[in-house]
Amino acid sequence: MFKSFKLYIGKAIDLESILSTLVDYGYKMQEGVSQEGDFSRRGGIIDIFPLSFELPIRIEFDNELIISIKTFNPSTGAHLWAHKMVIILPVKKTHHLKTAHFSEEFPLNNFLDLNSGDFIVHNDYGVGRFLGLQKIKIKDKYRDHLVIEYDLQEKLYVPTEQMHLVQKYIAFQVRRPKLYRLGSKEWLRIKDKARKGIQKMAWELLSLQAMRLNSQGFGFSKDTEWQKEFEETFPYEETPDQIKTTLEVKQDMESPKPMDRLLCGDVGYGKTEVAMRAAFKAVMDNKQVAYLVPTTILAGQHYQNFFTRLKDFALNLVLLCRFKTEGEQKKIVEDIAKGRADIVIGTHRLLSDDVVFKDLGLVIIDEEQRFGVVHKEKLKKLRLTTDVLTLTATPIPRTLYLSLMGSKDLSVINTPVQNRLPIKTIVVEYDLDLVRQAVLREVGRHGQVFFLHNRIEDIEKVKDKLSCVLPPDIRLAVGHGKMHPKALEQVMYEFLRGNIDCLISTMIIESGIDIPNANTIIVNNAQDFGLADLHQLRGRVGRFDRPAYAYLMIPKNAVLESDARKRLNAIQEYSHLGAGFNIAMEDLEIRGAGNLLGVEQHGFIAAVGFDLYCRLLKEAIANFKEAGVLHA
User: Does the pTM of the predicted model rise above 0.85?
Assistant: First the structure.
């Protein structure tokens, strides 16, 4: 059983009580906070770097009353965004009971802000509507309570010390949930039905896990001297999370059991470097590596990055994608079969029937959710015998809970790379003068610009309009998926080299195009994009130590649909570093998620909410394991 510590604006609490609780939770008093588990105090201000937070928080007191809670940049001290409330989780378990009480635990996230009007779930009473906080007098003292409205406008008052029984209702469906009646047994019946159905899912997950644990993989050797030399060629300073994640991956690889690890980190947080080190380690044991990416453009960029890092090492790196001619592809496939190719980077072409590896040791998958059902089935078979490392910036719920439930191992990179700044996100009506100013300002500081227009049929007209309002020395180019592969490759290469000031392109740039010098992106008709797409596009900039800008432009005088408005509001709200998970959850709330988990499981999520669903699933898995169903 894990404890939690709630702090919210308006709460009266003794400062010494907070400090002693933090020590009890395993936090360490420091002069400044630089990593998870640190805290410090200066007068009426306490800084804490809570477990699983991307950045530390600053809590300001007026006597014993909390008056502000803000996330801040530990390097500069600058305040980044405010919170109404935070929940502090222990760095260490405060105590453990044999039977635990059920991304009293918090499986989804350390905290999701509740707003008045949100639907929430109380474990004992079901789905209701949150009306806010209210002080109620109990035994001559006023205490804060959450007010929850149920059917027939009945109200439940939950003292704040019982907040662990309440979660935000998330079900990935558009329609509003049913409110329950207080005192009715219907909620207990629904929850019990869900618990029994979820046990079936738990059994399936454990069966998959047992198959993997009982499969015999390859145990890689300890790091070589070449491994150390290769890692020293990394041009940046590793973040603590990169170091920790690399160690976790290497330990998995050195185990004889097949690795199946999900590496989750926001766009630009350094997941690729971890993958590179794993690939190099595999080749040191004469194993082949397949690096699978969702787009041809991204495959080409990864190839260039690997080529630069590997040029001083005697390894054979190849690229297999539609940029290659039929003859070139045939030669590469032959090299793979004969073991002459050490690291193969490519698109789903790597999963074609004619591609047979001589001795495959590691598969790295970038954004698995972008691959089709047939490809995923092939990957599922690979997982039973081959080490698999999956990289993702915005985890879909299925991937997330598979990790939380233990059928996948999970590593998280929460720490932004050094000097990375949040991206200033501006939603505005389309204005050519504003576009002109944005481009000139970026080029004026020797930077580059992405202009995203996702319609091939009139993309050349957009270029012509821009060329009319921009000075003639601004170098423009167009890139889209229907261009000849060699021509597109040349455009991207010229942009990467800095020979193009503004690239007008379609969504081909969405995944992973890393141009450190491009720090302004302009998205035309932003209302037509999904929330996760907008976040990925915004992540194409801000890779450098200078302020970056994302202009999300909508047509003049446009009347936006409700969902489009919600998406644009959310992308502005979640502009802080590490917001990928919030974005993914918000996107699913807005548009619904369809049948992600099978019809039956989807129904259970709608009935009890995703958070409680996860808790019930964890409980079922724990019970099966305790009964000796799974033996590692």
Answer: no
